[in-house]
Write a structure and sequence with these properties.
- α3 links the parallel β2 and β3.
- The protein is an alpha/beta fold and 290 residues long.
- 41% of the residues lie in helices and 18% in strands.
- The chain is elongated, with a radius of gyration of 21 Å.
- The strands form two sheets. The protein has a seven-stranded mixed beta sheet, with helices on both faces. Strands 1-8 form a two-stranded antiparallel sheet.
- The protein has two domains: 202 residues, Vaccinia Virus protein VP39 (Rossmann fold, 3-Layer(aba) Sandwich), CATH 3.40.50.150; 71 residues, rRNA adenine dimethylase, C-terminal domain (Helicase, Ruva Protein, domain 3).
- Bound molecules: S-adenosylmethionine.
- The site of S-adenosylmethionine (SAM) has 22 residues, from β1, α3 and β3.
- The site of S-adenosylmethionine has 22 residues, from β1, α3 and β3.
């Protein structure tokens, strides 16, 4: 069996199939066995695991996943890769290749069907042009997912981990930290990929919380408040909330909520912790019912 993590084997497969990289699909294939092993280790793949992989490319990481997991479903948008995957994965009877756009799949029902509603592990070297919609979709759709171990742009991994006071702090940080515990497990330089991306990368592991770390009575409202605060990053929190089309609070209600939160009226949204956004949502919900 020719493992693809080795650059020579990857080149041989690409030449055999006259494969042309499609920039629009964010195709940068991993060619570093050390990083591949690190990902598998960080994801803690066991024999009884069901793994969902996003974007297998020519199947480099899929081969590793199939060696360790019980079952691997791998979703690839590029139809030109499907016959290649059928070849590179032919020795594994635990791989399911799905030619789909991950953003169009109903993941909650897919994983429920395939794994009896038990949590699956997501492992992926993500296409960077759609990292945020993929991660937000996986988190917000409430699909039964235990953990995600994903390769992302280094800057995005930093955003997922950061807190108030950092320039990287934003709606993505808050969503990731509300649903999961993030931890960067490796920094990966451009030389580990073919072709080399222009940016640095990192592997980050997101372990889903059993219970969210803060209490909000209305999760959707909390996220509307978060988005409104960061949409207008340079405005005060009060202005950001007042200008948001999907929030209907008066200036007085907003001011009174910020006051009750114990913050000055000119506070910016980027100063607030996750705990404070949760409190703000509870206060505004109560005020609007009064
Ligand atoms: N896993 C492979 C590896 O590590 O070598 C390839 C990773 S490459 C960064 C991203 C892969 O995602 C590509 O194979 C690309 O075609 C695929 N992809 C891009 N957009 C996708 C989408 N919307 N749905 C599913 N796969 C997608």
């Amino acid at each position: 069996m020719a493992y693809l993590g080795n650059p020579g084997n990857t080149i041989a497969v690409l030449q055999k199939y006259h494969f042309n990289f499609q920039k629009k699909y964010g195709q940068n294939f991993l060619v570093d066995t050390h990083i591949l092993e690190k990902i598998i280790q960080a994801a803690d793949i066991q024999r009884d695991d069901f793994v969902l992989e996003i974007g297998p490319g020519i199947g480099t990481m899929t081969q590793y996943l199939c060696e360790y997991a019980g079952k691997v479903a791998t979703v690839e948008i590029d139809k030109n890769l499907i016959p290649i995957l059928a070849d590179t994965l032919k020795e594994y009877d635990n791989a399911e290749i799905i030619n789909e756009d991950i953003l169009k799949m109903d993941l909650p029902s897919f994983v429920r069907q395939r794994n009896n509603n038990k949590p699956v592990k997501v492992v992926a070297n993500l296409p960077y042009y759609i990292t945020t919609p993929i991660v937000m979709g996986l988190l917000e759709q409430h699909a039964p997912i235990g953990s995600m171990t994903i390769m992302v742009q280094k800057e995005v991994a930093d955003r997922m981990q950061s807190g108030p006071g950092s320039k990287d702090y934003g709606a993505l940080s808050l969503a990731v930290q509300y649903y999961t515990k993030p931890e960067i497990v490796a920094n990966v330089p451009p030389g580990c990929f073919m072709p080399r991306p222009k940016v640095g990368s990192a592997v980050i592991r997101l372990i889903r919380h059993k219970e969210p770390p803060v209490y909000t009575e209305d999760e959707a409202l909390m996220f509307r408040l978060i988005r409104a605060s960061f949409n207008q990053r340079r405005k005060t929190l009060a202005n950001g909330l007042h200008n948001a089309g999907n929030l209907n609070y008066t200036k007085e209600q907003i001011q009174s909520a910020i006051d009750e939160l114990g913050e000055p009226l000119n506070v910016r949204g980027e100063r607030l912790t996750l705990q404070q956004f949760a409190e703000l949502s509870n206060i505004l919900k109560r005020i609007s019912n009064e």
